Structure formats: C-alpha cells, structure tokens
Amino acid sequence: PKKSASTSIKKSTISLFKYPKGRALLFAQTIYYISIALIVPYSMIVLKEAYEISDYKAMSFVLIQLIGAITFFIIFKTFLGKAKKRRILFCLFLLMLIASLLWSVAPATFYWWYCSVIFLIVGAAQMGGFLVLLTYFLSIIPPIERVGATLVVNSLSSLLAGSFAAIVGAGLLRALENY
Q1: Taking a C-beta distance cutoff of 8 angstroms, is the pair 68, 119 a contact?
Q2: Which of 43, 23, 44 is nearest to 141 (CA)?
Q3: I want to staple 65 with a disulfide (CB 3.0 to 4.6 A). Which of 32, 44, 123, 147 is the partner?
Q4: pLDDT at 25 over 70
Q5: CA 34 – CA 159 distance, rounded (Å)
Q6: How far, in Å, CA of 15 to CA of 12, rounded?
C-alpha cells in the first residue's frame, strides 16, 4: 500500500491507459455511472413531482432501494468467483434499462407496489454494478498501482458521467416539461 500510495497520479493515469483492460474498465464504469445518474435521482423526481407524494413516503422508497441492494449483495457473493463479470455487469445495465422502461409505461395513478418494484430493481442494479466493477478492478490492476488507479478511474468516470448525465438530464427535463 505504501508504494502504491506514493505513485504519482500522472504515472497512474499513463499506466491505466496503457492496458486495454484498464481502458475498458474506465469506459464500462463511465457508462454504468451514467445509467445510475440518469435513473436513480430521476426516479425520486417522478415520485415527488408526478405522483405528488410526501417526503416521508418518498424516503420509504430509499429503504426499498436499500433492500434491493442488500438482496443483490447476498445473491452476488454466491456467484462471485463463478460468473463472468462482464456478463453480470451487462445484465445489471439491462436491469437499469428495464427500470427506466417501467417508468416510461408507469400508470398515471400511484401504485405503491409498482414503484416498489422499480426501486428494488434500481437498488439491486446499483449495488451490483459497484460490486462487479470493484471486483473487476481488483482483478486487473496490480496491487502496486491500485491507489493511484482508484483515484484516476473514479475521478474520470465520475466527471465524465456527471457531465454527460447533467446535460442529457437537463435536456430530458426540458423536453418533458410540456409533456
């Protein structure tokens, strides 16, 4: 850890981009973070704005999301060494797409069970993505480079995903304003 922490960010960045798997990790994490940034906060906006539910009720859906995350963690640890991480990440990304599809066909009337299913899916997909990306990171990055690579991967993917999601999200909100 001491040697890894003493590696410069510049050297870590160059090292990360040198490996195709490092670039693939950065790309996958950025895409995944975009899906989270476009679905998770907007799910809460739908509850508050479209269904006009109280803050108290809205917070109960955060707990449902947490239940989905814990459930996925329990399931994931049994498959940790057996399944391919790319395949799991792809399935989790599909879950995020399913959640957004469920929002797009959501009934105009608030149904607690319907929204709960969406938040369970989102919680499972969000936690699952973090776990899969972390285990993939640990499997491809040598221990000597992990501290710097962590900073580079998380900073770049968060910056890119946040910027992209803010622009796209603002555009979607503006487009849906009159809908």
Answers
A1: yes
A2: 23
A3: 123
A4: yes
A5: 10
A6: 5
Average pLDDT over residues 28-56: 91
Residue 22: other Cβ atoms inside 10 A: 21
Work out the number of other CB atoms within 10 angstroms of the CB of residue 87: 10
Tokens read off for 66: 């947490």
Q: Tokens 């709960």 correspond to what residue?
A: 116
pTM for the model stands at 0.85
Q: Residue 106 — very low, low, confident or very high, per pLDDT cuts 50/70/90?
A: very high
Which residue type is seen at 32?
A: Y
Residue 3 reports pLDDT greater than 80: no
Structure tokens at 49: 């704005």
- Number of other residues whose CB lies within 10 A of the CB of residue 120: 21
Query: Reduced to 3 states, what is the DSSP secondary structure of residue 84?
Result: coil
The helix (run of H) or strand (run of E) holding residue 14 is helix 9-18
Q: CA-to-CA distance for 95 and 39, rounded, in angstroms?
A: 11
Question: 131-167 burial string, b = 16+ CB within 10 Å, else e?
Answer: bbbeebbeebbeeebbbbbbebbeeebeebbeebbee
CA distance 12 to 34: 23
Closest to 51 in 3D by CA, of 101, 98, 116, 97: 116
